[in-house]
Amino acid sequence: MNKEKLRIVIVGCGRFCKFFVPLFKAHPVVEKVYVCDIRKERERDYMEKFDVEGYESFEKALADPSINAVAIFTERFRHGQMVIDALKAGKNVYSAVPCAVSIDEMREIAKLVKETRLTYSMGETGVYRAPAMYCRREFKKGTFGKFVYGEAQYNHDIRNMEGSFKSSGGEEHWKEFAGIPPFFYPTHSTSMILSSMPGVYATKVSAMGFAGSPRTDIYGRTGQNYYDNPFSNETMLLHLSNGGVARISENRCVGWMSPETYITQFYGTDGGYEFSVANHHQTHWDPERPGKVIMKCVTDELQPKSIADMIKEDYDVAVQKIADTAGFMETSPVQPTWRLPKEFEGLRNGHNGTHHFLIDDFCRAYATGKLSPTNIWAVARYNIPGLVAHMSAMAGGQLMDVPDLGDPPADWEVLDYES
Questions:
Q1: What is the pTM (predicted TM-score) of this model?
Q2: pLDDT reading at 132 higher than 90
C-alpha cells in the first residue's frame, strides 16, 4: 500500500486532456496536480480554466523528487519514449492511447515496470464501454460457451476533425495526426474483444487496407503523411490463443459518426451477443427446447437510460440522436459506477461514461500496489496486433505471427474491473 499521495504533472494541454484534469484533481489519492505544455499559452489557459499550477517542462518534472507521477497526453508517436523516460526517472505513469507505435518500446516499458514495480496505466476507454462490460460478464458466467468469433470496430472519420486539430495543436500537430496508419491506434477495437476474455491474445494476423480515400492530400506512399501510409481504413482477421477468430476494423474515411466504437458480434458455441446502432441482443441455447435458442433484448442494460427510453418512444428519433453522439457523457447500467469515488459525482464524463473509471484505475493501482486492468501486459496485447497488421496490409494481406509479451508477473495482483 502506498500511503504517500500522488503529485502529478499532466503533460500536453490539448483538446483531449481537458476531460481529465478535474478528475485527477478530485481523486482522493491525488494531493497536487500541475499542467505542462511546450506551448505555454495553452498551459496558461489550463491553469486559469482548472485552477492549477503550471510546470516548466516534462524533463524538469522527471528530475524533481517531489513529483511522483506524470500523465502523458502528447502526440501519439511520442508516448512510448516518454513513458520509458518517466519510468527510468522513478515516476508512475498514466498514458493516453496508444501505448506506443513500436513493439520494442512496449518491450522496454514491460521490462521497466517489472523491475521498478511502478504503476503504469493506459487510458483505454474500450474496456469500460458497455458491450465489453457485458460480454466480459457473460463470458465469465459461461453463457456463451467456448468463444468462436467476434467483431469490433472504431469508425472515426478524419474529415470531421481537421479544424479542431489545427486550432488545438497547429499545422504540425495536424500533420502528425493526419495519415497515421489506422492500426497504429487499434486499441479501442481490439480491447473490446480481448478484454472480454482475460488471458486471451492474438497469435496470427492478416490484414487489408483501403487506399481509395478522397483525401489524396493525406493518404499515400509518397510523403503525404509522416508514415508513407496509403490506407485510410484497415481491417484485420486475428487468430486467437483460444482458437477463436476476431475481425477488427479501424476506419478513418467512412460515412459514419456514432456509435464510434462497438462490438457488433460476439459468438460462442452456446450463445452470443449482437448490437446494431441502438439495440443490444443476447442469445443462448434453450435447454427445454432442443435445437432452439432463447433470444432477449438487453438494451436497457447497455444503453444510458435517456437513450433506452428514447428508443422505446421513437426509434427513428433515437437513432438520429445516437448518430449525433447522444449519450457520449452518460454511463449505462452495466457499468460499475458503484466502485467510483464519491468525489467524482457530478463531474463531466466522456466516451460513453468511461473516463471516470480510467483515472480511478490508475489512482487505485498506485494506492494499492496492484496492477491496473490496463497494465502494460494487457495493453501490449491490444496494441501489438495492430502494428503487425499494418505490416500485413502493406504486404498485401500476408499472414504474420503476432509477438506476445506474456502475462503479468504471477505475484502481482490485477485490480478487478468491477470492484
A1: 0.96
A2: yes
Count of residues in the chain: 419
Angle at 130 between CA 126 and CA 136, to 5 degrees: 80
Torsion, Cα 393 396 398 401, to 10 degrees, reads -20
- Write the burial class of residue 203 (CB in 10 Å: 0-12 exposed, 13-18 middle, 19+ buried): middle
Joined together, the cell numbers standing for residue 114 give 517489472
User: How many whole angstroms separate alpha carbon 92 and alpha carbon 33?
Assistant: 14
**Phi-psi group of 406: left, alpha or beta (phi > 0 → left; psi -120 to 50 → alpha; rest → beta):** left
* Domains, the chain, ordered by start: 6-125 (3.40.50.720), 126-334+376-401 (3.30.360.10)
The secondary structure element, H or E, covering residue 390 is: helix 376-394
pLDDT (tens digit, 9 = 90+) per residue, 327-385?
A: 899 999 999 999 999 999 999 999 999 999 999 999 999 999 999 999 999 999 999 99
For 140, how many CA atoms within 13 A lie in the half-sphere containing its CB? Answer: 14
* Helical residues (DSSP H) of 121-216, grouped into ranges: 130-141, 162-177, 187-194
